[in-house]
Amino acid sequence: MLLQEQPWPVIDGLNRDTPVVIPIAAVEQHGHHLPLFTDSMLLGEIVRRIEEGMSDRVLIAPLQWLGNSHHHMDFPGTLSASPRTYLDLLDGLIENIVFHGFRRILLLNGHGGNDVPAKQVVFEVRQRHRQRTDLLLLAATYWALGEKAAASTVGMHQREMGHACEWETSMMLRIAPQLVGDYASLEAIEPGNPFLPATRGWVTKDRSALGHIGWPQLASEEKGEQLFATFTRDANAMLERMRNWDGTSWEG
């Protein structure tokens, strides 16, 4: 069920153990060949598929297109909230849902720069409501839910999500090929090893002058459909775990 399409009495009549999904994405550069709205379009398609299969079992909030994209600000068109502003935005959204009585909330993320703020905010909100044992507050990035997308996609070279890469370009070819520019002539920009396993502070131009990271030239519509199917299946599985939670235990 899409929250934005309902009158308030319908929302008021829902079981408060219904999982609530808050999709969070971005508007930012995606190289020379993909549109600025790529992350939001890809997550939007996954959310559409979730709603199509689980419309009677989950409540989905409108997709939040403003993300934490400061590392892409060197590229014109990128729109970004600073990390602390973004934390406050997500905090307020979760508190809205909690105020309305819902107890099971998932921030479903579609942009790498939102990952840390999303994890931090569910931790902070839980501390604020520390006396409650009935709250389930989760943050998850869609491509990390199952971690088997590369293995289950025929012909996939890239082993993990990059940026405007084989994965994202394939998915855009599946849903909006008219918005995909010349990807076949692009050269690969490998992710590299930025002092792993430490986490390095970086901006995109440290890694890529063109804006993409990965192997976009290997993309195909067929790979895109396989990726969408995998990511939707993984998200549905997480939502079923939320639905089946007993309401108090640590285990899920």
CATH fold type = Rossmann fold
| CATH class bucket | Alpha Beta
Outline type: globular
Which series of helices and strands comes N to C? HEHEHEHEHHHH
How many helices does DSSP assign? 8
> How helix-rich are the residues, as a percent range?
25-40%
Radius of gyration: 18 Å
Beginning-to-end CA distance, first to last residue: 23 Å
Count of β-strands: 4
Tell me the fraction of residues in β-strands, as a range.
5-15%
The overall pLDDT average reads 96
Spatial strand order of the main sheet: 2-1-3-4
What's the name of the CATH homologous superfamily? Creatininase
Largest sheet: 4 strands, parallel
Low-confidence stretches: none
**Count of the separate structural domains:** 1
Q: What structural class results from the helix and strand content?
A: alpha/beta
Per CATH, the architecture is 3-Layer(aba) Sandwich
